[in-house]
Amino acid sequence: MGVVSWSAVADVLAALCLLGGALLAFAAGVGVVRFPDLLARMHSATKPQVLGLVLVLIGLALRLRSGPALWMLVLVAVFQMLTSPVAAHMVGRAGYRTGKVRQELLVVDELTADQDAARRAAGLDADGDPHGAHRS
Amino acid sequence: MTAVVLVCAVLLAAAAILAVVRAERGPSMLDRTVALDVLTTTLVAFVGLEAAWSRRTDTIPVLVALSLVGFVGSVTIARFASREPPGEGRVRTREEIARDEAAREEAVRAAGGLDGTGPADGVDGGRG
Q1: B71 and chain A: CB distance < 8 Å anywhere?
Q2: Which contiguous run of DSSP H or E holds residue B48?
Q3: Where is the sequence biased in composition, kind Basic and acidic residues (chain B) (predicted)?
Q4: Quick one: pLDDT at residue B121?
Q5: Distance CA A108, CA A85 (A)
Q6: Using the beta-carbon criterion (under 8 Å), do A79 and B60 form an inter-chain contact?
């Protein structure tokens, strides 16, 4: 009796975790389609990349209930947490440098202010040229 | 469990379709990259859901591989896209293509006439 009820509890928890992960993936899909610019789309895209995936993996582990599979799933979560920030950093940097960031939608833009301050400190104008120089 | 798995599958399929919609519509390469990342994550979740439904462990290496290489594509495209000129995502009209072609030929002729070394020098040195 006790064994059966524990496995039932684990199945219910697994079902809840799988539902949560699928809901986060769906929310990411809606956000990716409806949000207005690149950074907002990246924001919604990261929801299933970490939390949604971890929920699905917890659900899968609760359903499988075996040791080796559990370690493989831990490995999946660790790899995803290591690699998705790299991808997000590269995409965000490329988006900023190619002007995909809409300034009017930002609340705070510390990077532009810092870059302007650094250029002023280096004695350069807005294009990165020394003062008085004309770019051909 | 079957009902939950069905609901999850429908949600994941909707997420995948929405991601494909953004990948088709996305104005820039980076929007498409983000959408394809969502598609990859949805794929991982779907494989996990199937493994949870049928209690199989032989598809878990697929999850490991996908979580390892899923970021390679977006990093590559981000490196590539950070060098693209502004206005790259635009499809040129026929008149614009003809005008650019005429300007290029004019530049070739001018370079060949000025230094006498032919069109090979001076024309393609513009992008350093």
Answers
A1: yes
A2: helix B29-54
A3: 84-108
A4: 47
A5: 21
A6: no
